Batch of 2 targets.
Target 1
Amino acid sequence: MSAGTAPHPARAIRTFHPRRGRMSDRQTTALQQLWPVYGLRVCDAVSSDPAVPFDAAGLFGRRAPLVVEIGSGMGDTTVEMAAADPDRDYLAVEVHTPGIANLLDLVHRRELRNVRVAEGDAVELLRAMPADSLDAVHVFFPDPWPKSRHHKRRLIQPTHVALLRSRLAVGGTLHCATDWAEYAEAMRVTLDADPGLVNLHDGYAPRPAHRPVTRFERRALRAGRPIADLIYRRR
């Protein structure tokens, strides 16, 4: 580096792989027609001015308790939970294009008004949100990054948990689920260590009836991988 040259800022470690994948004709049509109605890109939603926080009320057209789901997959869980919970708004954050398109189609078919879909880095979006503004955060089956050298990419680690907790209102819940036993234990240790969170159960939670069983979860169970749910409340 030559004298007077500023160093490059450290690149943030991503907790996800950007993925596109092949889409069906139905999904392609949904993405083209429904994205302008229900979708937003994180890079567009995040203001460069920290004094201008993310505007959820403007996004949904009302003020209601807000749930953020990080990694909504194909959208089945998001849609089922939002349909059963119309008094809260659901913001699903995903990077898998076919999953985004499928969720848009499901939202339109179910005529749900309380779901929006964000494409991009959920951590970046959460940083732009006001403190104490979320009613719940759902992290269902995040990438376990099983290799030791990749553990730094895991979403549930102390710095990210502190961010998640700070965005929850007092009494708000953080609900995580995984089918990876080693990650489940690491999650529990990390969440227990956060002084602003309290475990609502003695260890892992009984499987909550309000979380739908997805195709991914069924495959995990058939493969003999038990499911661990962890539900914490912000103090």
Target 2
Amino acid sequence: MSIMDHNGGSVIAMAGKDCVAIASDLRLGAGAQTIAMNFEKVFPVTDRLYMGLPGLATDVITLREKFRYLTNMFHIKESRPLQPSTFAHLLSSTLYERRFGPYFCEPVLAGLELTPSGTYQPYIAGTDLIGCLNFAKDFIVAGTASDKLFGVAEGLWEPDLGPEDLFETISQTLLNSVDRDAYSGWGAIVHVITADKVVTRTLKGRMD
């Protein structure tokens, strides 16, 4: 078993029309043994940017605190909002610094980027464990169920989904995918980000 799969867990981010969504399952395991069913892997960075951290649980907690510190330092020094594209490069360089002894996480970002015209456009990105950035216009997946997530998302995702349709699409994609993965599941949490609010919903899943 890969160390990336030891604790299990999966994350997916999807882009819609003027909105984005990011979701993860809630299982924390040690191999095939389930330890907890309330281990969140998606964390807020700013009001319009969330970060998902699938991978080794200890590194998830370490990176969460590290990026909380770096984000706060950016706000203190720059006195301006942290844009998703700026944070993506901060994330990439931070992970690349540890390339010879990497953190065992593959982060996923979902947020709204402020354009020069004053509007917000969806921004989703992912990296591998040494910080190589990957951008997409539709969806980004990571974690132990990533193969299943790719297949289901390809069939369900459509361009220009509104917030409610995007929520339904990402929820069905995640729940149907983790049902086919022994290391993910036990419920899910979904965040839908729009220009004026973030709606968070917790979903029930199969408990076996």
